[in-house]
Amino acid sequence: MILSRGLNLLKVTYKTSQNKVAATNLQSVRFNSGDDWVYRASPPVEKNWLYVAEAFGGLLWWWILWHFWHDYDHFLEIVPYPNPVKWTDEELGIPPDDYEETQIE
């Protein structure tokens, strides 16, 4: 159900983004150089590549949101604080009771 809603949402967003028209349509094409050069517009893109880009973008956002929902501790790095009662004297750097300090001469 989420996948079908997401695809419909992608279709609607794509169609609404195509209806936007620039205030000044200044396009001049130069044909003398061998390549098509377009001023203030992107070169035409094949629809297949557009669909592939939309699919990869959808997959990327699905991956990010899925992991934010299920593995949020990975992103927030929630680490439990260790219990200091369980620490040993050696870990705290406390010498044993029978330790005698020797003087270096």
Automatic annotation (TrEMBL):
Pfam families: NADH_B2 (PF14813)
Entry keyword set: Electron transport, Membrane, Mitochondrion, Mitochondrion inner membrane, Respiratory chain, Transit peptide, Transport
Main localization category: mitochondrion
Membrane topology: Peripheral membrane protein
Family (UniProt): Belongs to the complex I NDUFB2 subunit family.
PANTHER family (UniProt xref): NADH DEHYDROGENASE [UBIQUINONE] 1 BETA SUBCOMPLEX SUBUNIT 2, MITOCHONDRIAL, NADH-UBIQUINONE OXIDOREDUCTASE AGGG SUBUNIT
Transit peptide in keyword set: yes
A GO cellular component annotation in the UniProt record: mitochondrial inner membrane
Taxonomy, superkingdom: Eukaryota
Description of how the protein assembles with itself and partners: Complex I is composed of 45 different subunits.
Keyword Chaperone carried by entry: no
InterPro entries linked: NDUFB2_animal
Compartments in which it is found: Mitochondrion inner membrane
Protein name: NADH dehydrogenase [ubiquinone] 1 beta subcomplex subunit 2, mitochondrial-like
Gene Ontology terms: biological process: mitochondrial respiratory chain complex I assembly
